[in-house]
């Protein structure tokens, strides 16, 4: 019996080694799939482990190389920064994406990292037509970029999400296409940066009525209890959109995975002459947790529903390409803070921030009183993502032209305007004048290359989100959040499944930026331009560590 088993393993190895261990130049593996579950803390998987399906999360937890002690080493635990870090293998200070929003001096308004008014949104028309998006603000190459370079463009790179930032920053500059949804309608769109018109199969998907059918549905848990509905109604902050209402339920995740199936079939992903890369960022978890926090019953039910959906998707991949020909990764872009009301139950010093615009108003009022009495000025253009973006023009009018002094004034005002415990300025980081401690290092790693002068605020632990005073109901609306340097925001899962990886739980310290350099090494390609993580050698099967790079 043992001899038969050994013979089977040997035959399996010989049949699949050329598929699994050769470099990208030999077109194998056929496909690398990276699944990013937005806002997923590592301990959320531990809590639900016993209720997971065989080929969902347990595929990664029990049959993959699972790194349980994986932490981001930056304070900017935001969606944009996390996705860029995963695929560039670098900190925000190197890849340039340190926030979800910043101040654009040319446009004189807040922008996202992927806004690009030189491009056009494809997939909507009329009143919904808008500028497109691009990865032009990325200052580092991605895994997909290097894969395209190594194979002379034979490899194909695709990224899909409900969010534009997640898709665009994951795909990188050389992606064949990235797709996300139009927030109000749910239609999948892309940008003229990638193509001149939507492929026919995407148009057919959008015209199929799938998005429309997801309105007015009931989401129930396994016991049949009603958790929420997708009725067309305004959220507490006044917005009505497919993105927030449908997107924050299992219907949103299934909708995205259905689109990914269509992409794989119609673009023949994994069937070309070289290794293809597909990044899927699942947004529902993040959207729901912003509403209810990570410890709510709905959060657990959503994760279990996603587990079943992933198991079905893995089955689809196996039927389509054969799992022996695929490497898969499961990880996250950031964790999530406990909701303040939940943490208070356990006597933790939890609270929420005032609404961001209220903090901005307090800053400008205090600075105007100190620097230009009787002449109110906007010394702070924007307060967003715990960052105050400073106006050099307003300070110059007040006689302060030194960046360090202007930012120090804003930092001191920030400590009085909101319950921040400390602040870090652009000038301090640029000059290397911060003390060499762990907290300072996380803010140095979060250096924002865009947005001009700024001050980053550091909250006390367990300050969760902000109280949004825009609520259409007239009642305060608590928006739970992330974006701090604490473990509940930095601790994420990282699991790798496939022939090169030795199954097991690895408790050695690791970082999400280790992913890009590990995969590039196994694929036999150059790592992304600024990747400075480590190769996760402890999780590599002996044959993989000895693979020749061609």
What do these coordinates show?
The protein has 550 residues and is of the alpha/beta class. It has two domains: 17-336 and 487-545, Alkaline Phosphatase, subunit A (3-Layer(aba) Sandwich); 351-479, Gyrase A, domain 2 (2-Layer Sandwich). The protein is built from 22 helices and 22 strands. Strands 6-5-9-8-7-12-1-13-21-2-22 form an eleven-stranded mixed beta sheet, sandwiched between helices. A four-stranded antiparallel beta sheet has the order 15-16-18-17. Helix 15 packs across helix 17 (403-417). The two termini are 38 Å apart.
How does the SSE layout of this entry go?
Blueprint (H helix, E strand, L loop, with lengths): L1 H19 L10 E7 L4 H7 L8 H7 L1 E7 L7 H10 L3 H4 L6 E3 L4 E3 L3 E8 L8 E3 L9 H8 L6 E5 L2 H8 L5 E5 L6 E4 L8 H8 L2 H4 L4 E3 L5 E4 L12 H4 L4 H17 L9 E7 L1 H9 L4 H25 L4 E6 L8 H5 L6 E4 L1 H16 L8 E5 L2 E4 L1 H6 L5 H15 L4 E4 H6 L6 H7 L9 E5 L4 E6 L8 E3 L7 H4 E7 L6 E3 L7 H10 L18 H4 L5
Parallel strand pairs: 1-12, 1-13, 2-22, 7-8, 7-12, 14-19
Antiparallel strand pairs: 2-21, 3-4, 5-6, 5-9, 8-9, 10-11, 13-21, 15-16, 16-18, 17-18, 19-20
Helix pairs in contact: 4-7, 11-13, 12-13, 15-17
Can you tell me the residue ranges where pLDDT is under 50 for at least 5 consecutive residues?
1-23, 546-550
Q: What's the CATH superfamily of the largest domain, by name?
A: Alkaline Phosphatase, subunit A
Mean pLDDT: 92
Assembly annotation? single chain
CATH fold-level name of the largest domain = Alkaline Phosphatase, subunit A
Q: Helicity level, as a percent range?
A: 25-40%
Q: Give the N-to-C terminal Cα separation.
A: 38 Å
Q: What's the total helix number?
A: 22
Strand order of the largest sheet: 6-5-9-8-7-12-1-13-21-2-22
The CATH C-level name of the largest domain is Alpha Beta
Annotation, overall tally of beta strands: 22
Strand content: 15-25%
**Biggest β-sheet, characterized?**
11 strands, mixed
CATH-derived architecture of the largest domain: 3-Layer(aba) Sandwich
Task: Supply Rg.
Answer: 24 Å
> What form results from the Cα inertia axes?
globular
- Supply the number of structural domains: 2
Structural class: alpha/beta
């Amino acid at each position: 019996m043992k001899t038969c088993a050994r013979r089977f393993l040997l035959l399996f190895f010989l049949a699949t080694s050329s598929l699994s261990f050769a470099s990208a130049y030999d077109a194998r593996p056929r496909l690398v799939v990276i699944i990013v579950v937005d806002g997923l803390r590592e301990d959320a998987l531990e809590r639900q482990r016993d209720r997971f399906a065989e080929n969902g999360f347990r595929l990664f937890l029990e049959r993959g190389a699972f790194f349980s002690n994986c932490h981001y080493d930056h304070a900017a635990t935001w969606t944009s920064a996390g996705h860029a870090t995963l695929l560039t293998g670098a900190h925000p200070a190197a890849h340039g994406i340190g926030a979800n929003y910043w101040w654009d001096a040319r446009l004189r308004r807040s922008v996202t990292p992927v806004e690009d008014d030189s491009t056009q949104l494809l997939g909507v028309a009329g009143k919904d037509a808008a500028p497109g998006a691009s990865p032009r603000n990325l200052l580092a190459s991605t895994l997909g970029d290097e894969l395209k370079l190594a194979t002379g463009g034979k490899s194909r790179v695709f990224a899909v999400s409900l969010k534009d930032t997640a898709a665009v920053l994951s795909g990188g500059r050389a992606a064949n296409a990235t797709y996300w949804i139009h927030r109000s309608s749910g239609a999948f769109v892309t940008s003229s940066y990638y193509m001149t018109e939507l492929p026919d199969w995407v148009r057919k998907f959008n015209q199929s009525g799938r998005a429309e059918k997801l309105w007015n549905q009931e989401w129930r848990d396994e016991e049949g209890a009603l958790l929420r509905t997708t009725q067309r109604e305004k959220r507490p902050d006044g917005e009505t959109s497919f993105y927030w209402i449908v997107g924050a339920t299992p219907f949103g995740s299934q909708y995205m995975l259905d689109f990914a199936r269509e992409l794989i079939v119609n673009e023949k992903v994994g069937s070309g002459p070289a290794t293809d890369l597909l990044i899927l960022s699942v947004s529902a978890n993040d959207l729901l947790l912003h509403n209810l926090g990570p410890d709510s019953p709905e959060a657990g039910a959503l994760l279990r529903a996603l587990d079943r959906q992933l198991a079905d998707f893995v089955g689809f991949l196996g039927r389509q390409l054969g799992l022996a020909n695929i490497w898969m990764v499961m990880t996250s872009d950031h964790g999530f803070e406990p909701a303040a009301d939940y943490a208070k139950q356990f006597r933790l010093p939890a609270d929420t921030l005032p609404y961001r615009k209220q903090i901005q108003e307090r800053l400008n009022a205090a600075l105007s009183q100190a620097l230009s009495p009787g002449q109110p000025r906007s010394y702070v253009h924007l307060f967003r993502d715990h960052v105050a973006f400073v106006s050099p023009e307003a300070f110059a009018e007040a006689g302060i032209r030194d960046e360090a002094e202007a930012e120090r004034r804003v930092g001191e005002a920030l400590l009085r305007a909101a319950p921040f415990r400390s602040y870090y300025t652009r000038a301090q980081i640029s000059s290397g004048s911060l003390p060499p401690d762990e907290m300072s290092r996380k803010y140095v790693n979060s250096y924002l290359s865009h947005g001009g002068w700024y001050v980053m605020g550091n909250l006390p632990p367990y300050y969760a989100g902000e109280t949004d005073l825009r609520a259409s109901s007239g009642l305060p609306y608590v928006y739970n959040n992330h974006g701090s340097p604490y473990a509940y925001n930095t601790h994420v899962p990282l699991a790798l499944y496939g022939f090169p990886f030795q199954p097991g739980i690895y408790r050695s310290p690791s970082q999400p930026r280790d992913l890009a350099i590990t995969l590039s090494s196994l694929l036999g390609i150059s790592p992304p331009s600024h990747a400075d993580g480590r190769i996760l050698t402890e999780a590599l099967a002996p044959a993989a560590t000895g693979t020749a790079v061609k």
